[in-house]
Design a protein that fits this description.
CATH superfamily of the largest domain: Fumarase/aspartase (Central domain)
Number of helices: 20
Radius of gyration: 30 Å
CATH class of the largest domain: Mainly Alpha
Helix content: 55-70%
Distance between the termini: 51 Å
Order of helices and strands: HHHHHHHEEHHHHEHHEHHHHHHH
């Protein structure tokens, strides 16, 4: 492509070092779509005749079909997907194919292709997030009023509905969808026509190209357009946060499935065994998701590091964006699919959950609230209940096992109704503030989410 200036062939080691066709081939559909739109602009500008434009479009579609069938031979001598497709087109059409690259550079071409590709991938990932949300809401609906301990510091804290716990992840995923949508909005600007750095003296109708490619607007600065990878960084950041949420869901699932908890059983289809220990059933899907989150973090840091010292405008360093982006996209899509499958096939054990939640110590804060309603300042109430917990521990019993005289020995405010405070079924409906896990609240949230996801 630059044989006019160079007298010596590129060294074989450099060809291998600089090629990107081994990974950027996946942009072929988007490269072809962008080239067809570019040909339409060249026709409007009088560079192509209607017949030439039609020949180019037909030729590009034929090449795309060959690639779809696995019949196209990509060559590292041509470096990347753009030159492989253009070279094939020129072999077929001769000088007509050679006209296609008029008024564009690989710099603005790849900026376009990557935006087109990531628009589609964001849509696919968003669908995967929605599918996981639906699975979580479905399991929450199935779980009904199953109650389990909520944890802070991985210590039993207060009782919550299992459904409420699941819906916490639905909320996290909703924020992920918002970030993906924001990224897509800022990404959705058409850069083609910016050339290598300063546009072209051949004026093309960039807004026509934008309409053909479903972009609402075009970039306003040619230098920024070819060097901008903010949208890729934003996407990797959004996927890193998504990965973090999936990792946390994976960690909870691992704990719930352990022999120590036994709140859920992972389906055989989403677990593995041990090569040595016949009894083992390992939650590998959740563990792999937890591990692969590190890749999502690493890809973000890799791209940020690549970009941080680049002078304007295009530099070959930008070739390093694709493998990080492709890996994060593939990782996120796979993680969403397998986590949705694992969650949808979980068997839950409400009796085991309740046995763990039905510990009166988990209602210690309810006991403090009881005192507050009797006009005891909260800090004093906290201290009184703390003394009662210590008294029960010293006696080797729970709060429910203390007698009324035991309670009154710490504070005379306690009355005979104190025992009703330590009833789990009576406690749960009292947690009725907006966002709290009272059964009525949770049922309403499930209904709200079902309606939203259906819409």
């Amino acid at each position: 492509m630059w044989k006019g200036r160079f007298q010596t062939d590129t060294a074989p080691a450099v060809k291998h070092y600089g090629e990107s066709i081994s990974f950027d081939w996946r942009l072929y559909r988007h490269d072809i779509r962008g080239s067809i739109a570019h040909a339409a602009a060249l026709e409007k500008a009088g560079i192509l005749t209607p017949g030439e434009k039609q020949s180019i479009e037909s030729g590009l579609l034929a090449i795309g079909a060959e690639i779809d069938r696995g019949e196209f031979d990509f060559s590292i001598d041509l470096e990347d997907v753009h030159m492989n497709i253009e070279s094939a087109l020129t072999r077929r059409l001769g000088s007509t194919g050679a006209k296609l690259h008029t008024a564009r550079s690989r710099n603005d071409q790849v900026a376009l292709d990557l935006r087109l590709y990531l628009r589609d991938e964001i849509d696919a990932i968003s669908s995967g997030v929605r599918a996981l949300q639906s699975v979580l809401v479905g399991l929450a609906d199935t779980a009904g009023d199953a109650v389990l301990p909520g944890y802070t510091h991985l210590q039993r804290a207060q009782p919550v509905l299992f459904a409420h716990h699941l819906l916490a992840y639905v909320e996290m995923l909703e924020r992920d969808l918002g970030r993906l949508a924001d990224t897509r909005t800022r990404m959705n600007v058409m850069p083609l026509g910016s050339g290598a750095i300063a546009g072209s003296t051949i004026l093309l109708d960039r807004e026509l190209v934008a309409r053909l490619l479903d972009f609402p607007s075009v970039t306003r600065n040619s230098m920024d357009a070819v060097s901008d990878r903010d949208f890729a960084c934003e996407l990797l950041a959004a996927l890193a946060l998504l990965g973090m949420h999936l990792s946390r869901l994976g960690e909870d699932s691992i704990l719930w499935a352990s022999s120590e908890f036994r709140f859920v059983t992972v389906d055989d289809a989403y677990a593995t065994g041990s090569s040595l220990m016949p009894q083992k059933k390992n939650p590998d899907v959740a563990e792999l998701t937890r591990g692969k989150t590190g890749r999502l973090y690493g890809n973000l840091l890799s791209l940020l590091t690549t970009l941080k010292g680049l002078p304007m405008t295009y530099n070959r360093d930008l070739q390093e964006d694709k493998e990080a982006v492709f890996d994060s996209v593939d990782t996120a899509r796979a993680a969403l699919e397998v986590m949705a499958g694992m969650i949808s096939t979980l068997t839950i054990h409400p009796a085991r959950m309740r046995a763990a939640a039905d510990d009166a110590n988990l209602l210690a804060t309810d006991l403090a609230d009881y005192l507050v309603l009797k006009k005891v300042p909260f800090r004093d109430a906290h201290e009184i209940v703390g003394k009662l917990v210590a008294l029960a521990a010293a006696r080797g019993c729970g709060l429910r096992d203390l007698t009324l005289p035991n309670f009154q020995s710490v504070s005379p405010v306690f009355e005979a109704d104190v025992t009703s405070v330590l009833d789990l079924d009576a406690s749960m409906p009292k947690r009725a503030a907006i966002g709290a896990p009272a059964p009525d609240n949770v049922r309403a949230e499930i209904a709200r989410w079902k309606k939203a996801l259906h819409a």
